[in-house]
Specification:
heterodimer, A: alpha+beta, Alpha-Beta Plaits, three-stranded antiparallel sheet, B: alpha/beta, Ubiquitin-like (UB roll), Rossmann fold, seven-stranded mixed sheet, 37 strands
Chain lengths: 163, 829
C-alpha cells in the first residue's frame, strides 16, 4: 500500500514536472496576425501558376490537373498560340484557368499531375475574405509569383504585402 | 473485306479458347469474337488487311516467325497464342520502334485520352525508352485543308488515311511519299485535301497526326458529354456523336468502331464533311432565339403560340377551312410534322398541308430498300440522282458496293456526275426528257419496240435496250432516284418503271427515293401532303381515315405548297404557317413568292434561323431545331432513328411542345405528352406502317418502318415534247448540299466548298452563242436574271443550261416559274 502511495506521488511529480517545464518554456502559440508563422517550403497552401525564365507561362492547358482533381475544382480552357499572341512556348496555352479555392481540399494532386511544373502549391495560408466570389481564382490571380512567406499577395481583394 | 454471303466456317484455338468463324476471317477479328483484344494500328475493319504497322504480332503454332494477326486469315485447327513470351516481346519491340520518334506530346495532343497508341503503349509497350539520341523533329500543325491539320511528328505511317482515301473515298487524294524517316502523308503537289469526306481521316487516325482544325485544343476528350445522335443535313441521317462541354458545342465524330458500334444499315461508319463541320448552326448568330410579332416586339413562347392558334381559328371561322394552310419542311422531325398536320386537319379542318415543290406521292409499288440493301443488290439503277452532291454518304456506299460486292451500277441522268466513273453504263438524256426516257425503258423491259429518242432525249434506242437487258439479267435491282429532279409526268413514270421491274419474272426490286432534306420520307409518311393522310392513306380511303381520325376529318383535297402561294397571291388564302422553310428563296418564283406572302392576312413563320421569310412574318415562333430537340426521323431507306438532343435549352420549349400546346389551345381535351416519345407512341397508333416504332425498338440502330403501298400508278400518256423558242436553253437546277445557305453561313469552316455561280453549257450551244469558259454571262428568263460564270463542258447535253444552286444570294429560283413546266433561259454576255 505504501509502495502504491509512493508510486502515486512519483507520478504526480512527473506530471507537475511537465507543467513546470512548460510554464517556463516559450509558448507554441504565436500572436497572429502580429507574428506570422514561417511555413515549410513544401506546405500545400495557395496555388500559383509559374512562368519560365523568358516570362512565358509554363502552363500548356493540358487539363491533367483538372482531371486529377478529386473535387473537380479546376476549370481549364485551352487555345492555340500564334506568332502574334504567344503565351507559352508550346503549341497550346490555357486561355482560361480557374480554381475554386473553397472547393479545393489542398491535396496537391494538381501539382503532382502537372507535366510542366506549371501549377504549384505554396506556403501561403491567409485565405480569409468577406466575399465568396473572389474565391474563384482566375489566371490573373494565380500568375503572381510571390516570395516565400509573403502573405496576402494580390489576392482576396487585399493587395498589400505584409511579412 | 469478306463477302457477306460466305457461310463456310473454320474452328481454331486462340489462347486456349476455341473459336468458330467464317472462312477468310483474319485473326484479329476472330480473336475479337471471344473477347481477346489484339492491338492494331493499320488494321481497320472497313479498310481490310494491310499489315504495315506490325503491332498485331502473334505466335502461330508451326510457323517459324511471328505473324501479323491482321493479315493472317485463320485456318482449320490453327493454334494462335497472343500472350506467349515470344509474342509479347515481339510487340514490345515493335512499339519501341514506333515510339522512336513519336513526340511526348500527349498532354497537348487532341487525341490524348482516346489514342490507340497511348492505350497500346500502356498495355503492351516497354516501360522505358532506351533511346539516347534526340528525336527526329518534323513539321507540326501543317494545314492539309481548312478543316484538317496534320502533325507530321506524330504520324506513325500506318497508312490508314491514305488507304481510306484510296479504298473508301476512292479519290486517292492522300498518298505516302518518300521512304524511311522521310516518309510522309501528303496530297499531290500539296494541294488542299478538300474532298467531301476528308474529316473521316481524323476519326480513323490512330494517333494525333490528323486533327480536326475546328476542334483543335478546344477541350480534352474527357471533358465532353457525348450525345449519340443523327446528322440533320441530307436524307441519309448518318449517326454522329456530338461532343459538348458545359452545354457548348465542341465537335462532331462519326459513330464508328472507335467509339461505339457503327450503324452499317445507314452510314457504314463514315460521315461527310457537312455532317462533321456543318454543326455550327446550333450557335449561329443568325438564330431566332425569341418569339416576336411583326413589329419586332418579343413575346413569351406561350403567348405567341396562343395568338397563332386563336388567330388561325378566327380565320377559318370567318373564311372557311380552305383559307389557311401549312408549308412544312423536310427538315422537321416526324413528331413535329405529325403534330402540325394534326393541328391543321383536326383543329382547323383543312388538308392544305405540304412540304415540297416537286411532285411525289407516298408509297412505292415495290419494296422500300434500306441503304444497306445496295450492297446485296446485283444492280443499282441511279436515276436523275447525284448522290455525291446531294447525299454524299450514299455515294460512298454505292462506290463500295461496286468495288467490293460486284454490284453493277447503271446511271440514267441528265447531267454528268461523279457516279459516272464507277458506273458500268451511264446514259445522259436531254434535260427535261426523263418522262420519255423512262417510258422508253418501260417499253423495252416489256419487250416492245423502242421508239426513236435521239432527237428528243439524245439517247439511242439501242442504249435503252442494253440497259433493259442488264436489268432483266440481274436478280436483285435497287433503283435510286431523286423525286425532286423528275419533271412533268416523270414522277408517275418512275413508279410505273418500278412496277414493271418488280413484275419481271424472278426479280427482286426495291427503290430508295433520295429527295432533298433530312426527313423527306418521314414528312410524306406523316401526311404532310394535301391528298394523303399519314401513312399514305389517300383521301378516297374515307372509311379508314374516319376510323383513325374521326368522322369530321376533312376529305376535300388540299392545296399543294405552290398552289398555296398562288392562292395567297390571289387573296383566297388568308393565313399560312411556314415551318422551317424559306419559300422566298427556295420556292420557284423567288421575289414573286415574297409578294404573295405579303398579301396574307396572317403569316406565322416557325423557324430556327432568320430567313428572308421570317422578315415578312406577322408572328415569328422560335424553333429549337436539331441539336436542341429530341425527335425521330425517317431516312431515305425508310429507317426510323432517334435524333437525340446534344445541347439543352431551358428558356424555350421544344418544338413538339410548342405545337402540341397550339393544339391544346384550340382543344383543351387534346392529349399532352410527357416527352417526345409520347408523340412517337401516338404516331405508332395513328400512322399505318409505324406500328412497331417505339422508344426501345429504335434504340441504337433504328428500325425500318413498313413502307406503304403505292395507291395507283397512272397509265402511260405520251409526254408532249416542248420546243425551245429563239434558241433558248432549257434550265436545269442542280442541288448542292455544300451550298452557301443559312446553315453553312459565311463563318462556316466549309467555306472552301462554296462555289461561285456557274452555268454549264454544252460545247455545241456555247459555240452557237459565242461563249467561252470563264465568260461572265447572264442567265435570263422573263424579267429575272442571274449572273454566272460560263463553263463549257460535256456536263449536259446540247439544248440545256445547267446551273447548280450554290448560295441563297444567287437568286436562282427567280428564274423558275411552274416547276412542272419547262423553264427556258437565254444566255447573254
Amino acid at each position: 500500500m505504501i509502495s502504491q502511495a509512493f508510486e502515486g506521488i512519483k507520478n504526480l511529480l512527473v506530471g507537475l514536472g511537465v507543467t513546470f517545464k512548460n510554464m517556463l518554456s516559450q509558448p507554441a502559440t504565436q500572436c497572429y496576425p502580429e507574428v506570422k508563422r514561417e511555413m515549410p517550403a513544401r506546405y500545400r497552401g495557395r496555388h500559383f501558376l509559374t512562368r519560365d525564365e523568358q516570362g512565358f507561362e509554363n502552363c500548356v492547358g493540358c487539363e491533367l490537373c483538372a482531371i486529377n482533381c478529386p473535387v473537380s475544382c479546376i476549370h481549364v480552357e485551352a487555345a492555340e498560340n500564334t506568332e502574334e499572341n504567344r503565351v507559352s512556348l508550346g503549341e497550346r496555352y490555357a486561355s482560361r484557368y480557374e480554381i475554386n479555392l473553397l472547393r479545393c481540399i489542398y491535396c496537391g494532386y494538381c501539382e503532382e499531375a502537372c507535366p510542366e511544373d506549371a501549377i504549384i502549391l505554396r506556403e501561403h495560408y491567409e485565405l480569409a475574405d468577406y466575399d465568396r466570389d473572389v474565391y474563384v481564382a482566375d489566371k490573373e490571380a494565380l500568375l503572381v509569383y510571390p516570395k516565400p512567406n509573403e502573405f496576402r499577395v494580390n489576392f482576396l481583394g487585399n493587395t498589400t504585402l505584409k511579412n | 473485306m469478306p463477302k457477306k454471303t460466305q457461310t463456310e466456317t473454320v474452328t481454331l484455338t486462340i489462347d486456349g479458347k476455341t473459336v468458330t468463324v467464317p472462312k477468310g476471317t483474319v485473326a484479329v477479328d476472330a480473336a475479337k469474337t471471344v473477347g481477346i483484344d489484339i492491338p492494331v494500328f493499320c488494321y481497320h475493319e472497313k479498310l481490310g488487311p494491310f499489315g504495315c504497322c506490325r503491332m498485331c504480332l502473334v505466335e502461330v503454332e508451326k510457323m517459324p516467325k511471328l505473324a501479323t494477326a491482321c493479315t493472317q486469315a485463320v485456318g482449320q485447327d490453327m493454334v494462335i497464342k497472343t500472350d506467349s513470351p515470344k509474342a509479347v516481346k515481339g510487340r514490345q519491340g515493335v512499339l519501341e520502334f514506333t515510339l522512336l520518334n513519336h513526340p511526348l506530346d500527349c498532354p497537348v495532343c487532341d487525341k490524348g485520352g482516346e489514342c490507340p497508341l497511348q492505350d497500346n503503349t500502356f498495355e503492351h509497350g516497354p516501360d522505358l525508352t532506351r533511346t539516347e539520341f534526340t528525336r527526329y523533329n518534323r513539321d507540326k500543325a501543317v494545314p492539309l485543308s481548312p478543316v484538317v491539320t496534320i502533325d507530321r511528328e506524330r504520324c506513325i505511317a500506318c497508312q490508314r488515311c491514305t488507304r481510306y482515301s484510296d479504298i473508301v473515298e476512292q479519290e486517292t487524294a492522300l498518298v505516302m511519299v518518300n521512304r524511311g524517316f522521310q516518309n510522309r502523308v501528303q496530297t499531290f503537289q500539296d494541294r488542299p485535301y478538300d474532298t467531301r469526306f476528308s474529316g473521316n481521316v481524323v476519326d480513323i487516325c490512330p494517333v494525333g497526326a490528323l486533327t480536326n482544325t475546328t476542334y483543335r485544343f478546344k477541350s480534352r476528350i474527357w471533358d465532353l458529354d457525348n450525345a449519340e445522335t443523327l446528322c440533320a443535313h441530307c436524307g441519309v441521317n448518318c449517326n454522329i456523336v456530338v461532343g459538348v462541354r458545359s452545354n457548348e458545342f465542341m465537335r462532331v465524330q462519326a459513330k464508328s468502331g472507335e467509339n461505339s458500334q457503327a450503324n452499317d444499315a445507314v452510314d457504314d461508319g463514315w460521315i461527310c464533311d457537312k455532317g462533321r463541320f456543318g454543326y455550327g448552326f446550333v450557335e449561329s448568330s443568325n438564330r431566332v432565339l425569341k418569339c416576336r410579332n411583326g413589329k419586332g416586339d418579343t413575346l413569351e413562347a406561350n403567348d405567341a403560340l396562343g395568338q397563332a392558334a386563336t388567330q388561325l381559328k378566327k380565320i377559318t371561322d370567318e373564311h372557311g377551312p380552305q383559307s389557311v394552310g401549312f408549308i412544312g419542311s423536310p427538315y422537321g422531325t416526324n413528331e413535329e410534322l405529325y403534330l402540325y398536320q394534326k393541328l391543321f386537319r383536326q383543329q382547323l379542318g383543312t388538308n392544305n398541308i405540304d412540304f415540297k415543290t416537286y411532285r411525289q406521292t407516298p408509297g412505292l409499288p415495290v419494296e422500300h430498300y434500306d441503304v444497306g440493301d445496295i450492297e446485296t443488290s446485283d444492280m443499282v439503277l441511279l436515276i436523275a440522282s447525284d448522290p455525291t452532291e446531294e447525299a454524299p454518304v450514299l455515294d460512298l456506299r454505292i462506290k463500295k458496293s461496286v468495288s467490293f460486292f460486284d454490284v453493277k451500277l447503271a446511271v440514267l441522268n441528265d447531267q454528268k456526275t461523279d457516279m459516272d466513273k464507277p458506273a458500268a453504263s451511264s446514259l445522259r438524256y436531254n434535260v427535261g426528257s426523263e418522262a420519255e426516257v423512262l417510258s422508253a425503258l418501260i417499253e423495252a423491259l416489256n419487250d416492245k419496240p423502242v421508239r426513236g429518242l435521239e432527237k428528243t432525249a439524245g439517247i439511242a434506242p439501242k442504249q435503252i435496250k442494253d440497259l433493259a437487258a442488264t436489268i432483266q439479267g440481274s436478280g436483285k435491282v435497287c433503283v435510286i432516284y431523286n423525286p425532286a429532279a423528275l419533271t412533268g409526268s416523270a414522277s408517275d413514270r418512275i413508279l410505273e418503271l418500278l412496277q414493271t421491274i418488280g413484275g419481271l419474272p424472278d426479280k427482286q426490286c426495291g427503290a430508295i427515293p433520295v429527295a432533298p432534306g433530312t426527313n423527306a420520307v418521314g414528312a410524306l409518311d406523316m401526311g404532310a401532303h394535301p391528298n394523303f393522310y399519314p401513312g399514305g392513306l389517300a383521301l378516297s380511303d374515307s372509311e379508314k381515315i374516319k376510323t383513325l381520325w374521326g368522322d369530321e376529318a376533312p376529305l376535300q383535297p388540299g392545296l399543294s405548297a405552290l398552289e398555296m402561294i398562288q392562292k395567297a397571291a390571289s387573296g383566297e388564302l388568308k393565313g399560312l404557317v411556314v415551318f422551317r422553310a424559306n419559300p422566298v428563296v427556295d420556292f420557284p418564283g423567288g421575289p414573286t413568292v415574297a409578294e404573295a406572302l405579303k398579301k396574307l392576312d396572317y403569316l406565322v413563320v416557325h423557324d430556327m434561323l432568320e430567313t428572308e421569310t421570317t422578315q415578312l412574318a406577322n408572328l415569328v415562333l422560335a424553333s429549337n431545331g436539331p441539336g436542341y430537340d429530341d425527335g425521330t426521323t425517317t431516312n431515305i431507306g425508310g429507317r426510323v432513328q432517334f435524333r437525340k438532343r446534344s445541347l439543352v435549352r431551358e428558356d424555350h420549349p421544344p418544338d413538339w411542345v410548342l405545337i402540341s400546346r397550339m393544339i391544346r389551345a384550340l382543344d383543351p381535351e387534346a392529349p399532352s405528352y410527357k416527352n417526345s416519345f409520347g408523340v412517337t407512341d401516338e404516331i405508332s397508333q395513328k400512322v399505318p406502317g409505324y406500328e412497331a416504332i417505339n422508344k426501345n425498338a429504335i434504340k441504337g440502330m433504328g428500325m425500318p418502318r413498313k413502307g406503304s403501298a403505292c395507291s395507283e400508278v397512272q397509265g402511260n400518256g405520251a409526254p408532249a415534247a416542248e420546243k425551245s423558242e429563239n434558241g433558248a436553253l432549257r434550265l436545269r437546277v442542280a442541288n448542292y448540299l455544300f451550298a452557301h445557305d443559312k446553315i453553312l453561313d459565311a463563318s462556316s469552316p466549309l467555306s472552301h466548298h462554296f462555289k461561285s455561280s456557274t452555268v454549264y453549257l454544252n460545247a455545241e450551244d456555247a459555240k452557237a452563242l459565242g461563249i467561252e469558259t470563264g465568260d461572265e454571262v447572264k442567265v435570263v428568263s422573263g424579267d429575272a436574271e442571274v449572273s454566272a460564270e460560263a463553263e463549257v463542258s460535256d456536263r449536259c447535253n446540247p439544248g440545256a443550261a445547267l446551273v447548280p444552286r450554290v448560295s441563297d444570294e444567287q437568286g436562282l429560283m427567280a428564274l423558275v416559274g411552274d416547276p412542272d413546266a419547262a423553264v427556258w433561259v437565254q444566255i447573254k454576255k
